[in-house]
Amino acid sequence: MDAVSAPRPATPPATTAAEPAACPGCGAVLAPPTGRSGADGAAAACRRLFEETTRGLREEAAGDARAAATVALADTAYAAQHPDPDDPAAVHAVVDTLVRRLDDDPNPDPAPHRPTVWQMTTADVAADLDVVGLEALVDTWARTVAEDWSRAARS
Ligand SMILES: [Zn+2]
């Protein structure tokens, strides 16, 4: 039956919501919040997703050293993936801190260019939260961010 097996033409969604766009930092494709559009909106959506994902952990951090360490690692990984466009060189210190937090060898040669692809983003952390604990996810995410930077330095 052709009518069943033939691929249907893609119909644009009947909504006026802003188009999903790629975060200029990590490249995660996220729907911008109302009133924002494009990459700027995606960056705001990414930031919000990160804040929502880590909110519970932040609340625990005041009285829990382990939670505080995970928050610090998450903040550093996020900063390493989202360099300040007005001060792109500042990210090297962030990557250094990230590597130190992970107890890895410091990266002797900071990458001249930031990584273009990331193994994991905030969106992946948020997506896996149902199956994996946040602490383990943040650790894996931070390690992949450090790896991506170190690979960019070698390429
Ligand atoms: Zn992002």
Could you describe the 3D structure shown?
This protein has 155 residues and is mainly α. It has one domain. Helices cover 54% and strands 3% of the residues. The chain is built from 6 helices and 2 strands; from the N terminus they run H-E-E-H-H-H-H-H. The protein has helices at residues 2-5, 38-61, 65-81, 91-101, 122-128, 134-154; strands at 21-22, 29-30. Strands 1-2 form a two-stranded antiparallel ribbon. A hairpin with a 6-residue loop joins strand 1 (21-22) and strand 2. Helix 2 packs antiparallel against helix 3, helix 2 crosses helix 5 (122-128) and helix 3 (65-81) packs antiparallel against helix 4 (91-101). The longest helix is centred in the first third of the chain and has 24 residues, at 38-61. The structure holds zinc ion. Zinc ion binds at residues 23, 25-26, 28, 46, 82, 121-122.
Task: Supply database-style keywords.
3% strand, two-stranded antiparallel ribbon, 155 residues, 6 helices, binds zinc ion, mainly alpha
What small molecules does this complex bind? zinc ion
Q: List how many beta strands DSSP finds.
A: 2
Q: Into which percentage range does the β-strand content fall?
A: under 5%
Shape designation = globular
Q: If you compute it from the alpha carbons, what radius of gyration comes out, rounded to the nearest whole angstrom?
A: 18 Å
Question: Strand sequence of the main sheet, in spatial order?
Answer: 1-2
Give the domain tally. Answer: 1
By DSSP (H or I, 4+ residues per run), the number of helices equals: 6
The helical percent reads 40-55%
